[in-house]
Design brief:
The complex is a heterodimer of chains A (about 290) and B (about 350). Chain A is mainly α. Chain A has one domain. In chain A, α6 crosses α7, α6 packs antiparallel against α9 and α9 packs across α10. The longest helix of chain A is centred in the first third of the chain and has 33 residues. Chain B has 12 helices and 14 strands. In chain B, a hairpin with a 5-residue loop joins β1 and β2. Chain B is α/β, with parallel strands linked by helices and about 350 residues long. Chain B folds into 2 domains: about 240 residues, P-loop containing nucleotide triphosphate hydrolases (Rossmann fold, 3-Layer(aba) Sandwich), CATH 3.40.50; about 70 residues, Alpha-Beta Plaits (2-Layer Sandwich), CATH 3.30.70.100. A 6-stranded mixed sheet of chain B has the order 6-7-8-3-9-10, sandwiched between helices. The N terminus and C terminus of chain B are likely disordered. Chains A and B meet through α1 and α4 of A and α1, α3, α4 and α5 of B. Chain B: GO terms for molecular function: ATP binding; ATP hydrolysis activity. Chain B: It holds the Pfam family DrrA1-3_C. Chain B: Belongs to the ABC transporter superfamily. Drug exporter-1 (DrugE1) (TC 3.A.1.105) family. Chain B: Keywords: ATP-binding, Nucleotide-binding, Transport.
């Protein structure tokens, strides 16, 4: 074999191109590679939303379609449901972010990365970027499947891209949440359970599956403060090309954007708030100050 | 078995060393002055450690569980900030210049740290990228390290399929990607079978031969004896002895008489009392062991039989005895008054 000292003379002083972007890219690649290595997780986090999409449209299509048609004449239930399923995908996929962090802590990679000269912010930016990328791909798959099932993206490709963007904005607060839970519990099962526990109440107590008017009063009240309502209504506005935001009524632009903008604003605020909490917890966990 | 086919440590000129040399005129890889670390809950883990480890040395840090070994090594690797004292690693201050320290060291944590979902080659490649090994050197570096730790034939297998020993070797390889002039190994062989342990020792010797300074913590005395140029023994956060293995053994003084007894602990206690009051041994150190007692004295050989007679007179049954040169175990026994037995089921946390 060749002895280490016989070839080129690159060492720490020859650190090439480890910029912030470079460090983020290295981690982006690792997390994508891990995702591809674990196709089971990729598939399972898609299967549940797909089951929802197929079952709901087939089972409730006729009944729910009537309720939908009262508020949105000419919109079939498939079209109504697809934006909600897109948000569900974002929610389900975001849970795995915290799980990944716990795994990294458990198998020592978390500490191993802390000892490298990489920027710690870039490390987490890269990881989150990989998760966002995966969520975008999964939402795209759901949109395609929805169209096959008879949904209609009225705004076309631009609208589809918009829906993906809303899905990403929606996912970030839950990514932050699941990472925060991961750091606090440092336990895989607790992270999965606590994030999963929230998934169904959040989805059902919102405008995701039925128009709010068709739901009991207490659900309508909860739905007003439920982030899912804002994400779904913004995505749905893009889907049907009209303002279907149910909980905030604005007339800033006139038309579809009046349904999208308030939802986006609320989600950005939520992302920043929970993101700050997660960042604070992460930097405490990776700080070298004695604890 | 791969062998080194070129020059020895003398003519190495690895950039890491150059960088470190440029940063500081001192040739110390590790320079510690009054290191203290007190945890937030008030636990004093390290209580005023001074040490200097020159470049190229294989340095052993020996102590029982909870003595402060891991805390110390984590401070050196910038994972913990000292609460007192000064730590310079490769000439850089561990607190204020932590990034430079990280660039110039390799660190192998006590718990095996690899990504099980990636292959062996991918794990090393990730480390190359993390440490900024130039792109055109990466492929060669990965191959070279896979060779070094004998994992070339499983390069494309996922690490989760590996045995504990293979994972440790892969972990060691990832700590070397940037050819650091200084490598920290935190109990690298704990939990490994003797064969896997021997194999790792061989790699550590090899990289040390290439000029890399190694700082190793261990609770295996044999490991320290086999590998290290110099040792420090840490107990309750303080260094209680240091020197080369042979110096430490000499310090024990004389020879060791091990006596095996029947009658368990009670017999051991009585025998120890008799040995302590045995004038012919001078100021011997007497310790109770699992099997009986162990007496270390200049005159152990001459007067060993006299002790056995005295024990018989006291109606203590001797089932065996042995006179030998001291080992590091005896050093440890003499310093701490307790046996250091890492195989005792007490695996370090």
């Amino acid at each position: 074999m060749s002895a280490p000292e016989t070839d080129d003379r690159s060492g720490p002083s020859a650190r090439s191109g480890n910029t912030f972007v470079g460090d983020a890219w290295v981690n982006f690649k690792r997390w994508n590679l891990k995702a591809v290595r674990n196709p089971f997780v990729l598939v399972v986090s898609l299967v549940q939303p797909i089951i929802f999409l197929v079952l709901f449209t087939e089972v409730f299509g006729n009944v729910a379609g009537g309720a939908v048609n009262q508020g949105l004449p000419g919109i079939n239930y498939e079209t109504y449901l697809v934006p909600a399923i897109a948000i569900q995908v974002a929610l389900a996929a975001a849970i795995t972010s915290g799980v990944g962090l716990v795994n990294d802590i458990e198998n020592g990679m978390f500490e191993k990365v802390l000892v490298t000269p990489m920027s710690r912010t870039a490390v987490f930016v890269g990881k989150t970027a990989a998760e966002v990328f995966r969520i975008a791909v999964q939402i795209a798959i759901i949109l395609g499947l929805g169209v096959l099932l008879g949904a209609d993206i009225v705004t076309g490709v631009a609208g589809a891209v918009g829906i993906i963007a809303v899905g990403i904005l929606f996912s970030l607060w839950f990514v932050a949440f699941s990472n925060a839970v991961a750091i606090i519990t440092r336990d895989q099962e607790s992270t999965i359970i606590s994030a999963n526990l929230l998934q169904f109440p959040l989805l059902f107590l919102s405008s995701a599956f039925l128009p709010l008017e068709a739901l009991p009063g207490w659900i309508q009240t909860f739905a007003r403060v439920n982030p899912v309502t804002y994400g779904v209504d913004a995505a749905r506005s893009l889907m049907v090309d009209r303002d279907v935001m149910t909980v905030i009524d604005v007339a800033w632009f006139g038309g579809t954007l009046d349904g999208v903008a308030p939802g986006v604003a609320v989600l950005v605020g939520l992302d920043l708030a929970l993101g700050a909490v997660a960042v604070a917890l992460l930097s405490r966990a990776s700080s070298s100050d004695v604890k | 078995m791969p062998t080194r086919d070129t020059a020895g440590p003398g003519d190495r000129s690895r950039d890491g060393n150059d960088a470190a040399a440029a940063a500081s005129a001192s040739a110390a890889a590790i320079d510690v002055d009054g290191l203290e670390l007190t945890y937030a809950d008030g636990t004093v883990a390290v209580d005023g450690i001074d040490m200097t480890v020159p470049e190229g040395e294989f340095f052993g840090f020996l102590g029982p569980n909870g003595a402060g070994k891991t805390t110390t090594i984590k401070v050196f690797a910038t994972l913990l900030s000292p609460t007192g004292g000064a730590v310079r690693i490769n000439g850089f201050d561990a607190r204020s210049d932590s990034r430079k320290v990280r660039e110039s060291i390799g660190y192998m944590a006590q718990e095996t740290s690899i990504d099980p979902e990636l292959t062996a080659a991918e794990n090393i490649e990730f480390a190359c990228e993390a440490y900024g090994v130039p792109r055109d050197a990466r492929t060669d570096r990965v191959d070279e390290l896979l060779d070094l730790v004998d994992l070339a034939d499983v390069a494309d297998k996922r690490a989760e399929e590996f045995s504990g020993g293979m994972k440790k070797r892969l972990d060691a390889a990832t700590a070397l990607v940037h050819r650091p002039p200084l490598v920290f190994l935190d109990e690298p062989t704990t939990g490994l079978d003797p064969k896997a342990r021997n194999r790792l020792w061989e790699y550590f010797r090899r990289i040390n031969d290439l000029g890399t300074t190694i700082f190793l913590t261990t609770q295996y005395l044999e490991e320290a004896d086999q590998l290290c140029d110099r040792l420090a023994v840490i107990l309750d956060g303080e260094i209680v002895a240091d020197g080369s293995p042979s110096e430490l053994k000499r310090e024990v003084g004389g020879e060791v008489l091990d006596v095996e007894l029947e009658g368990g602990q009670a017999a051991g206690e009585r025998a120890a009392d008799i040995a302590r009051e045995f004038d012919a041994f001078g100021d011997a150190s007497v310790a109770e062991t699992e099997a009986g007692i162990s007496v270390t004295a200049e005159t152990a050989r001459e007067h060993g039989t006299d002790l056995l007679v005295a024990l018989r007179d006291a109606e203590i049954t001797v089932t065996g005895f042995n006179i030998r040169a001291p080992t590091l175990d005896d050093v440890f026994l003499a310093i701490t008054g307790e046996e250091l037995d890492a195989d005792d089921g007490e695996v370090a946390r």
